[in-house]
Amino acid sequence: MIRKVETRDVNQVVAVHLSSFSGFFLSSLGPKFLALFYSGIISAPEGIAFVYQNEQGTPAGFVAGSSNPGGFYSRLLKQSWFKFAMAAVMPVLRKPSVILRVARAVFHPAANPVGRDVAGLFSIGVLPELQGSGAGKKLVQAFLDEVRRRGCKRVFLTTDCDHNDAVNAFYKKLGFSIERQFVTPEGRRMNEYWITLSEKNT
Ligand SMILES: CC(C)(COP(=O)(O)OP(=O)(O)OC[C@H]1O[C@@H](n2cnc3c(N)ncnc32)[C@H](O)[C@@H]1OP(=O)(O)O)[C@@H](O)C(=O)NCCC(=O)NCCS
User: Fold this and answer.
1) What is the chain's Cα-based Rg?
2) Which atom of ligand 1 is nearest to the CA of 137?
3) pTM for this structure?
4) Which atom of ligand 1 is nearest to the CA of 132?
5) Which of 38, 73, 88, 182 is 20 to 30 A distant from 81 in Cα terms?
6) Residue of 170, 174, 191 best suited for mutating to test ligand 1, as the one with most atoms within 8 Å of CB
7) Which residues line ligand 1 (CB under 6 A)?
8) Please, which residues bridge with residue 182 across strands?
9) Atom 34 (ligand 1) nearest CA
């Protein structure tokens, strides 16, 4: 079953994030930072977030994004900067370079594509034991339905180009196409995918 994320789901969404994105930058910022991040998405009017519940009724997958992605991270961080700063203290002490990446999100808000009618899918994860069962596809479909309902026409997302064949195959299977490739300041090659909404990808 797919439903909107509620405040009571945030800790489980964080748990799913940590187990499906092991070794990724956001995960390295720790559960407190992630909880603020996902709470910020669900409380923002432009935020979009759904969970996939397993048979026990526990969230086992999630998708999150925004129907106004330009400057979204910057607005989120600025709005609760003190809480984010407190949550980042330990991760920054462990690895000081993470502060540069957080600062880039705040001071270079144009990093997300902007434009009318554009939505961004920022994060999707399914517990490893449920991957391949159709949960990810249902989550993307719920996300696209909501985006369409809000009047957006196009959706973008980014994912790693290298060592990421399964995820790239997943997005292509769902109708997304690569429109741009770029290299992050950390040297990661990224694919930027887009999909134009139509009746057929409902
Ligand atoms: C990416 C992810 C969300 C996909 O969710 P999922 O539940 O495993 O995917 P689904 O079972 O819904 O697959 C949907 C379709 O993609 C296809 N697909 C999925 N993995 C694939 C692979 N490795 N190779 C080819 N096709 C694949 C499936 O065959 C399926 O097609 P079908 O509907 O014709 O059967 C999930 O694997 C995940 O959480 N990965 C780790 C976190 C991550 O990297 N997230 C994305 C970051 S941008």
Assistant:
1) 16
2) 12
3) 0.92
4) 11
5) 182
6) 170
7) 20-21, 124-126, 131-137, 159, 166-167, 169-170, 173
8) 190
9) 173
From the CA of 170, give the closest atom in ligand 1.
Answer: 16
> In whole angstroms, what is the distance from residue 54 CA to residue 130 CA?
9
- Its sign, for the CA torsion 175, 177, 182, 188, is positive
Give all domains of the chain, ordered by start, each with its CATH number.
2-201 (3.40.630.30)
> How many angstroms is it from 125 CA to the middle of ligand 1?
9
For β-strands 59-66 and 189-196, DSSP reports them as: unpaired
Write the pLDDT tens digit of every residue in 41-50: 999 999 999 9
Helix (H) / strand (E) containing 119: strand 118-126
Q: Which residues pair with 157 in a beta bridge?
A: 193
Taking the C-alpha atoms of residue 148 and residue 155, their distance in angstroms, rounded to an integer, is: 10
Closest atom of ligand 1 relative to the 21 alpha carbon: 42
Single-letter amino acid, residue 36 = L
Are residues 157 and 121 in contact, defined by beta-carbon separation less than 8 angstroms? yes
Per-residue pLDDT tens over the stretch 49-93: 999 999 899 999 999 999 999 888 888 888 888 898 898 888 888
